[in-house]
Specification:
18% of the residues lie in helices and 34% in strands. It has 153 residues and is of the alpha+beta class. It has one domain: Roll (Thiol Ester Dehydrase, Chain A). A hairpin with a 5-residue loop joins strand 5 and strand 6. The longest helix has 11 residues. The relative contact order is 0.25.
């Protein structure tokens, strides 16, 4: 479903701008679905006893499942750049703390870089963060998107 939002061009972004993404509580069903889709069926992610044996006391999420929470698609950003987006240039993630079943993840994207290019595009760099329900940082990273500049009229 297309939202009626004005197109944002490279020129319209500003450093410090934030884009909140929907919160998500990781359930056992979410972990199972991710394990099936990714092939990551380690017992550490599905069996409490395996997690207990190595000292976690909970079933842990895959770092990649936690990283997926920083995908811009569930938020407003993709609708803003639908007509100006060239593509995702790169992405990185650093895992700060473990994520467990029952954690509620709170992802945010924040503009940290605006690099104009020749040829009518620029790079919008975003810092991606995910905090848990206790406000503890669990993931931080970057994303860089190539966005068209505003067309001349």
């Amino acid at each position: 479903m297309r939202q009626s939002l004005s197109t944002r061009w490279f020129d319209d972004f500003f450093v410090g701008e934030r884009f909140a993404l929907p919160r998500r509580t990781l359930t056992q069903d979410v972990l199972r679905a991710f394990a099936e889709a990714s092939g990551d069926a380690q017992p550490l992610r599905t069996i409490r006893a395996d997690s207990d044996a190595i000292g976690y006391g909970c079933i842990l999420s895959s770092g990649f499942l936690a990283t997926v929470q920083t995908v811009a698609c569930p938020g407003v950003l993709p609708f803003l750049i639908e007509d100006s987006l060239v593509g995702l240039l790169d992405q990185s993630s650093r895992y700060v703390r473990p994520v467990a079943v029952g954690d509620t993840l709170i992802p945010v994207l924040q503009v940290t870089e605006l690099q104009p290019n020749n040829g009518g595009t620029g790079i919008v760099g975003l810092r991606s963060t995910v905090h848990n329900q206790n406000k503890a940082l669990v993931i931080e990273g970057t994303q860089r998107w190539v966005i068209r500049t505003r067309p001349a009229h």
